[in-house]
Amino acid sequence: MGRLIVIEGLDGAGKRTLADKLTAAFAEQGATVGTRAFPRYGLSVTADLVQDGLHGRLGGLGDSVYGMAVLYALDRQGARDDLLSDLASFDVVLLDRFVASNAAYGAARLHESADGAFVSWVKSVEIDRFGLPVPHAQLLLRVSAELAAERATHRENVDSRVRDNWESDTPLQVRVGQVYDELATKSWLSPWHVVDGSTDLDVLSLTGTLLA
Fold first, then answer.
1. Distance separating alpha carbons of residues 140 and 143, to the nearest angstrom
2. How far is CA 209 from CA 22, 195, 202, in A?
3. Looking at CB atoms within 10 Å, which of 93, 96, 199, 201 has the fewest?
């Protein structure tokens, strides 16, 4: 059974870039690696509804914290069998976002902490009810909300991808970062490793830590 490792962080933190570097580094150490990203835009109807909600195209449902959280959770539940298959096939399964992102963003939207009712509810739905696998390790790529916004704006200009309502809300991103820090401190679901996303990372050393 492979190790499920999750990269979490703000929009624009550099998760996709880090995932690519970690994939290459794991392979260099002889590990087979499977990768996935959530939400599964273009692959899942539920994920596409999430995207509509983030851009204000779902009416009141997009404003509902719990409504959006259910859509995110259903997208992952739809990938459960694929995740379990990946874990049976690869040494490492590396995910760009997972259950903790739902917990962090929803709690931040509700102005709750990681000890609040929403985070507990996310676990009860995604882990307990939907039976999603628990990560072996979670990696928080920590950057300031200001730097994340700069990177998201650059990505918007380069990829012609319009930022969604949450990405454009800097106060929300600040609160999300605070909840992520709290989740990491309390080792929510599994051990967390916090790294500075504003500097170049020693990726080979990081892979050794994640495989230990």
1. 9
2. 12, 12, 11
3. 199
**Residue ranges of the chain with per-residue pLDDT less than 70:** 152, 154-161
Q: Per residue in 102-160, pLDDT tens?
A: 999 999 999 999 999 999 999 999 999 999 999 999 999 999 888 877 876 766 666 65
Nearest by Cα to 69 from 33, 37, 101, 115: 101
* pTM, rounded to two decimals: 0.92
Question: How crowded is residue 90: how many other Cβ atoms within 10 Å of its Cβ?
Answer: 19
- Report the distance separating Cα 187 and Cα 1, nearest Å: 22
- Which of 49, 63, 64, 206 minimizes the C-alpha distance to 140? 206
Could you give all domains of the chain from N- to C-terminal order, each with its CATH number? 3-211 (3.40.50.300)
Dihedral over Cα of 66, 64, 138, 114: its sign: negative
**b vs e for 115-150, b when ≥16 Cβ sit within 10 Å of the residue's Cβ?**
ebebbebbbebbeeeeebbebbbbbbbbbebeebbe
CA distance 68 to 72: 6
- Number of residues written out for the chain: 212
Most distant pair of Cα atoms in the chain: their distance: 49
**What is the rounded distance in angstroms from the CA atom of residue 117 to the CA atom of residue 110?**
10
8 A C-beta contact, residue 15 and residue 141: yes
